[in-house]
Automatic annotation (TrEMBL):
It holds the Pfam family TPR_12. CDD domains: BTAD (cd15831). This is SARP family transcriptional regulator. The keyword Secreted does not apply.
């Protein structure tokens, strides 16, 4: 085993035997190479670091002699060599054999792990590598500078380790170390260790010494950590509230979610939001996790049910919850400030240094919980809500755990815990039906279990039959607090006939919420929305947007199902007409130069006055429009086809490829083969499949579209389809075939007379030439396309042209021009929220960079590509990350990224797979 040391005297050990590495200057040379292991060090830099301002007359000759002797010495060691690299030398060795690099590696591992005990062990291992003063016995200006930096790094590591010791109860180890001479953080650690060791008097004495020293030497007061610690000592630490309710005794089925909460709440100060529909078991999950991890929070747990979505209670005001928390923290009623702001400030002060878990259950919205967030960063907060609390995620760095229904295995496990596995085994078919009827809803399963427990002799088949007949009737315990129907019936029966009709029609809404204008179109009555909100059967959860409680929605859907079919169809038609009209108006602003792509839509059209309001509306209504289209009755087939054509460009730009595939596939099934609409639907499906990496299926659809375009002599469809076919040919490396298609696409585009279509074809041709390595030719086509984009004022075309020009000018050896084009392209992408453009530009920009800059760009591209499901761009990003990490000597990370790229390229059957295989074989 080889050990190369600089954290002490410079030494080389082979199987524990220390080798003679020569005099001081020769050790200097070795030290320089060890600190830059795996990286070439130029000769001039070596000379400067070894001799500084006083080199010998012929330093290079001396240096060559030292390197030669070191080569001979190290040549006997396995895996260690000194190699010539251009104008310098590089010491090739596993960085983990060099103590300073192993030290840094262990520290990085410690920072990444979420387990404090594991992190502490890593810190101990790292610090054990030190054998005194680094680079001792060596003396030069460079050595002095390096030595100082290393010693500061060690001091920081010691402080970080001692924070972990305090968190894990190892305060005795902190006290075993010599008392620090200076440094407020180290002093605070020692004082906290004395306090935890049961020596408050000694802790207060040391605090006073530190305070006096700071005042005398710096004229400053102790910082927040010391002041908070002082208050804690004086108050005896305060009471330790234990407010958690009892956890469900038979909790089950959420192992993955519990593990995810472990991750989300691993760092101190984390805020996690469990969000999801009512009845999914958010509270059970939160209380179970909090109970299991109570020991992590030595200062206690605070809990409040805010009743944000409780049909039997009003929401608890945040001010009342704060007052309750103050009492739990030991504040006497007479000491509570009279004003809410003062109460909140005191609450934050009392929680600033404590390690508490705060559970805020059933929150209504972000404003409901913001006043209850603790001060400092030592407390962790677990929130449950039917809202996603996006404001909290955005402004407070909260982490989200969206809770879904239980899968079949989890639901079965929950029933088994409640009823026993033997009982379930007696009637497997009935159990299967019960699970299906409950749909993974934890509350529904709990009600089933309660009914069985109340009547143990009753057959499960009978209960399954009840669920088959009426779920809401079967999922009713007969008690007000656990009855689904009783609450809904009381509110519904109090409605006027018009409001009752509106309530039922809202059961047709296929998604969780609806905008005011859409609701008015569906109901034909704006006043009905206000009436239903007042009856707490509808909630305005955002300005202008309304939703039903999920169980109320089920109740409404059951009611509307019994209405007259003609009434339902008329309502659905009104809603679909509304979305078609508004989507058409939005797309006229979103893509103003492509009216030829969209069918004409009649009806009232809104005026999207603000620049981004069209995109905001499309984003907000996308889910509802897609859900309407994919569940529409056959009578609305024409609506579905027109909606798909209308939204085509938006779904492409925003990279909603999976949703687009669903919509376009639905539209294709509803069109008549051989018609123009059928051809465009075939193209839309084929193009979307291309982005999803399913090239064979895409090509089949595109060939049908092209065949029809030629038969109908439809130049528009021909140009679009040939561009898409050419893209697949280029991806698969078939350049001549791609060129032929691009040429035909450009010719067809020019025949249409549509300038934007010609610009798109020119841009695609430029990209093709760039892929072929013809950068000058690429720039020619791209500038032609850019002029069209400028003439039209089209950011949708201009952005991709700029990104492609960035790659072309990089290929021409003009990096400054390339950077300028890429940065402008990314501005276009972000301003227009063009996800497709952004991910492509990031990947292409990264390919022109190296080191940390390239890694940052590739990581951003990878995140966007994953979100969009764009497999090819994911592969590019992983490939680029692998190559960049490999060049930086990060072998482990490089291998992981390259392996991921190979999987993606293999799935895509892309030629780049061979290059990645070769790289992996070399590693």
């Amino acid at each position: 085993m080889v050990e190369l040391r600089v954290l002490g005297p410079v030494e080389v050990l082979a199987d524990g035997t220390r080798l003679d590495i020569g005099h001081a200057r020769q050790r200097d040379v070795l030290a320089v190479l060890l600190l830059d292991v795996g990286r070439a060090v130029p000769v001039d830099r070596l000379v400067d670091r070894v001799w500084g301002e006083r080199p010998p007359r012929r330093p290079r000759n001396s240096l060559y002699a030292y390197v030669s002797r070191l080569r001979t010495l190290l040549g006997a060691l396995d895996g260690v060599t000194i190699e010539r690299d251009r104008d310098g030398y590089v010491l090739m060795a596993d960085p983990q054999t060099v103590d300073v690099h192993r030290f840094e590696s262990l520290l990085q591992q410690a920072k990444k792990t979420t387990d404090d005990h594991t992190a502490l062990a890593l810190y101990d291992e790292a610090l054990a590598l030190w054998r005194g003063t680094p680079l001792s016995e060596l003396d030069s200006p460079w050595v002095a500078e390096v030595r100082g930096a290393l010693e500061r790094r060690r001091e920081t590591a010691v402080l970080d380790r001692d924070d972990l010791r305090l968190r894990t109860g190892a305060h005795a180890a902190v006290l075993a170390e010599p008392a620090p001479d200076a440094g407020e953080r180290a002093a605070a650690q020692r004082i906290e260790a004395l306090f935890l060791d049961g020596r408050p008097a000694d802790a207060l004495r040391e605090y006073e010494e530190v305070r006096s020293r700071l005042a005398d030497e710096l004229g400053a007061d102790p910082g927040p950590r010391l002041r908070g610690l002082h208050e804690r000592i004086l108050s005896g630490g305060g009471p330790e509230p234990r407010q958690l309710p009892a956890a469900a005794p038979s909790f089950s089925g959420r192992a993955a979610e519990l593990a995810e909460l472990d991750r989300l709440l691993a760092p101190d100060g984390a805020v996690a939001v469990i969000s999801g529909a009512g009845g999914l078991g958010k509270t059970w999950l939160a209380v179970r996790w909090a109970t299991d991890h109570a020991s992590r929070f030595p200062d206690g747990q605070l809990y409040v049910d805010l009743h944000g979505f409780d049909p039997a209670h009003e929401p608890v005001p945040a001010e009342r919850a704060v007052r309750g928390f103050l009492g739990a923290l030991g504040v006497a009623p007479a000491s509570v400030p009279p004003e809410p702001d003062g109460q909140a400030a005191l609450y934050r002060s009392l929680t600033a240094r404590r390690r508490l878990l705060i559970v805020l259950d059933n929150a209504q919205d972000t404003r409901h919980v913001t006043p209850l967030l603790p001060g400092g960063s030592s407390c962790s907060v677990l929130i449950t809500s039917r809202h996603e609390l996006g404001g909290l995620l955005t402004t407070h760095g909260a982490r989200a755990l969206p809770l879904r229904t239980l899968d079949e295995g989890q639901a079965r496990e929950l029933l088994a815990h409640r009823l026993g596995a033997a009982r379930l085994a007696e009637e497997p078919e009935a159990v299967q039906e019960i699970l299906a009827r409950c749909g993974g809803m934890a509350l529904a399963l709990a009600i089933v279990a309660a009914r069985v427990a109340a009547h143990p002799d009753r057959r499960l088949a009978a209960l399954a039959a009840e669920l088959r007949e009426s779920r809401l009737d079967a999922l009713d315990t007969g008690e007000l607090t656990a009855s689904l129907r009783a609450v809904f019936d009381a509110s519904y029966r109090a409605l006027s006939p018009a409001a009752a009709s509106a309530f039922r029609l809202l059961g047709l809404v296929p998604t969780e919420d609806i905008g005011r204008a859409a609701a008015t179109a569906l109901l034909g009555d704006a006043r009905a929305v206000r009436v239903l909100c007042a009856a707490n059967l509808l909630e305005e959860h955002q300005p202008g947007r309304f939703r039903m409680h999920d169980l109320v929605k089920l109740y409404a859907a059951e009611l509307v199902a019994s209405d007259d079919p003609a009434t339902r169809l008329a309502a659905s038609t009104r809603l679909f007409d509304h979305y078609l009209s508004w989507a058409s108006a939005a797309m006229d602003r979103f893509s103003p130069h492509e009216p030829y792509l969209r069918p004409r839509v009649d009806g009232p059209r809104p005026d999207f006055a603000q620049v981004q309001s069209d995109r905001a509306w499309l984003d907000a209504e996308r889910a509802t429009m897609l859900a309407l289209a994919t569940s529409a009755p056959e009578a609305l087939a024409d609506h579905v086809v027109r909606l798909a054509a209308t939204l085509w460009r938006y779904l492409y730009v925003a990279a909603h490829h999976n949703e687009a595939l669903t919509l376009h596939t639905t539209a294709l099934a509803l069109t008549t083969p051989g018609t123009k609409e059928w051809g465009f639907a075939q193209h839309a499906v084929g193009m979307t499949l291309t982005f999803l990496g399913r090239y064979d299926a895409a090509a089949a659809h595109l060939e049908q579209a092209l065949s029809l375009a030629l038969r109908l002599r439809n130049d528009l469809l021909e140009s679009m389809t040939r561009n898409s076919i050419a893209t697949i040919e280029d991806i698969r490396g078939r350049r001549p075939e791609a060129r032929e298609q691009y040429d035909e696409a450009l010719a067809a585009a020019r025949r249409t007379g549509y300038a934007l279509l010609e610009g798109i074809a020119l841009c695609n041709m430029g990209e093709h030439h760039r892929w072929c390595g013809n950068h000058q030719e690429a720039a020619k086509y791209l500038h032609q396309s850019g002029r069209i984009a400028e003439d039209l004022g089209s950011a949708g075309l201009g952005g991709p042209v700029l990104a492609a020009l960035g790659s072309a000018y990089a290929g021409l050896g003009r990096p400054e021009d390339a950077d300028a084009y890429f940065r402008r392209a990314l501005e276009y992408a972000r301003e227009g929220r063009n996800t497709n453009l952004e991910v492509t530009a990031l990947n292409d920009f990264a390919a022109t960079k190296s080191g940390l800059e390239a890694i940052s760009l590739y990581e951003k591209a990878l995140a966007l590509a994953r979100r969009a499901g764009h497999l090819r761009e994911q592969a590019f990003a992983q490939h680029g990350l692998g190559v960049t990490h490999r060049a930086a000597g990060n072998g482990t990370e490089a291998k992981a990224h390259l392996e991921a790229a190979l999987v993606a390229y293999t799935e895509l059957r892309a030629p780049e797979a061979e290059e990645v295989r070769a790289l992996l074989a070399e590693s």
